[in-house]
Write a structure and sequence with these properties.
The chain is mainly alpha-helical and 182 residues long. It has helices at 5-14, 21-34, 40-47, 55-76, 94-114, 125-138, 148-172. Helices cover 63% and strands 0% of the residues. Helix 2 (21-34) packs parallel to helix 5 (94-114), helix 5 packs parallel to helix 7 and helix 6 (125-138) packs antiparallel against helix 7 (148-172). The chain starts with a helix and ends in a 10-residue tail after the last helix.
Length: 182
Amino acid sequence: MIPNYEQVDSALALLNSPYSAEDSHGMLCAMLIVNNSLQCARWLDEICTQGNATKAEKTAEHETLCALYDHTKQELNDSLLNFALLMPEEDSSLSSRVESLKRWCDGFLFGLALAGVKDLSNVPEDSMEILQDITTISQADDDEEEDEMNEVAYMDIVEYVRMGVLLINEEMHPMNRHQTIQ
């Protein structure tokens, strides 16, 4: 089972996590990019810091979150580029989706710090540019009107972040591909 946004957000709420689904997913992506051998338990330790849930509740919610972990790890390393940001459904208002994108970007940047990235001077130039853009997006103003032009711009930015994360991952962990010339 691949958990959706609502399931992840609900699991985090039941665990009294201070993070939203998008924060947590951004953190997870960054932590996996820095350390592809990251264990789910390490990520859970970061996002589930204030738990008052019963052991049974924790087990069910941890299963949901670990399913997200497994799916995200697989997507980040998928040669078909099927990776997607965990965001609310498109029927949510544009302003709430923009706010979610900002939180995802914040989570991604925070995840880099949690994974021990302190010095960005060794980051490849393309990745550095994307990280600067992600920082800008996380601080963007979200007072835009809900019209078709802004909707298209939002979708373009989400796609840019998605592909940027994949590029950063590739530059950090080049895929071992067997290329054949035909």
